[in-house]
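Workshop exercise sheet. Pairs work together: one partner reads the sequence aloud, the other fills in the structure field after running the prediction. Swap roles for the next sheet.
Pair: D.N. / O.F.
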Amino acid sequence: MAQEPEVEQPKKKLPILKIIVGAVGAIIFIALGAGAAILYTKLTKPAEENPLAIVIERNVEAAESTKTDTKTGEKGKAPEPGTTGKPVPTREQYVTSYFEFPGNFTTNMRGSRRFVQMSIGLATQYDKRVIENVQKHEVAIRSEVLAVLAEQGETEIAGIENRRRIQGQIKDAINRLLTERTEFGGIENVYITALVMQ
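Structure field:
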């Protein structure tokens, strides 16, 4: 008998296909895990490292800081249920700077043997140069203020309306002097912080 030639059986490709599919699946699984880990770390970073968290925190802080208690007027507390109030109108505001002259202004009153002693403060919403100009020209300003006070009689100093008139006269005198010396006055209010007549 003659031997039959051996027929080559086809090689099984199935195991190779399983290996490739398994490897691709493992790679996808690892990639998904890595992506989830990265996303988790991004979302759990401290607020200073996570821009999304910073925006959320700022919005929460802004909302809390605008809440005003209608009874106490304190910011940061939610109003009690059932209470409402009108919203406060907002407008552009400037910082007011104050300056109080050291010492008093003392002078005799017109037509009298009595004298007046007064302390004066100034206010402006212009920049710091106005106060610097007041300090620079303080001697000349003191002279002008004393001249205004010396023109007042006893009856012209007593009373709120008279004091407001004197404040206006002092403001005008100071602004006039500052305009002559620095080309700009800038004093918006004069306050009498102490007043004694003797």
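Discussion prompt: The two ends are 154 Å apart (CA to CA). What would you look at next?
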